[in-house]
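Data deposition worksheet. Section B asks for the primary sequence of the deposited chain exactly as it was used as input, without tags or linkers unless they were present during the calculation. Section C holds the resulting structure in token form. Section D is free text for depositor observations; keep each observation to a single sentence. Incomplete worksheets are returned to the depositor.
Section A, Depositor: J.P.
Section B:
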Amino acid sequence: MRSPLILVFLCLLPSLFFAGVAASKTLKRDVKALNEIKASLGWRVVYSWVGEDPCGDGDLPPWSGVTCSTQGDYRVVTELEVYAVSIVGLFPTAVTNLLDLTRLDLHNNKLTGPIPPQIGRLKRLKILNLRWNKLQDVIPPEIGELKSLTHLYLSFNNFKGEIPAELANLPELRYLYLQENRLIGRIPPGLCNLPNLRHLDLGNNHLVGTLRELTRNEGCFPSLRNFYLNNNYFTGGIPSQLANVTNLEILYLSHNKMSGIIPTEIAHIPKLTFLYLDHNQFSGRIPDAFYKHPLLKEMYIEGNSFRAGTKPIGLHKVLELSDTEFLF
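Section C:
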């Protein structure tokens, strides 16, 4: 038979546990970093960030857009989502002191200046979303140190310079959005070897080079589904080796300077659904295999030098896919 003292202890145990959780203090490093960020942001965010502790204190809830978790005796900030609130000013460098961040989402604001190289300190980061800002300068190669990164959204900014070769060091990367910037140079060939890359959008930049350079290695782009190179300055033809990218569903090559004939092998990509070849310098005829493909819904061909009578596939309309359509 249990003694009364043991029964009392068992009754109090849940209360003691939750009291211990409530008593957990937020790591001073994170409190300092978030308060520095608070001091640098506009009123739209600050008015909802009440109290000194971003993870909540007593009756005060966590700050809006801040997610915390308990690690040992402390709480740490694991997610920061402050988007579409018209934040104005430089990218807040204090963010790079939140070393336990797994998600950083500051998209659709008015942030300017460069991404600081200290971004490479966020080793646990999985999602970095900075699209739709006014960020400038080069993409820091230190992003290549974020080995856990799965989603990288830097589109619709003013980045210049070349795509860092270090992005090929991100083994978990699935989604890479770099469209609508001022990037120059060639695509780093190492991107072809990323084992999990599903979506690659490099459209509307000033990139040069050929598809042959990217697909010369066996096993290139093993997981790639959506490949956007539109509105750049790519030259050369479509190599038959591209047919080895067997998971490809969307190939968007519009508005480049590509030429040559369309190889029949491309029609044998089993999941190919959308093919955009318009406004290049392609010639010859489209092989019949494309018109017999069971999944191909759209093929745009205007603005080329194809043989007379060559026909497109599907309803002819302008492709207008936003960079949110492939978010998980």
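Section D:
The chain has five helices and 22 strands.
Confidence is low (pLDDT under 50) at residues 4-22, 317-328.
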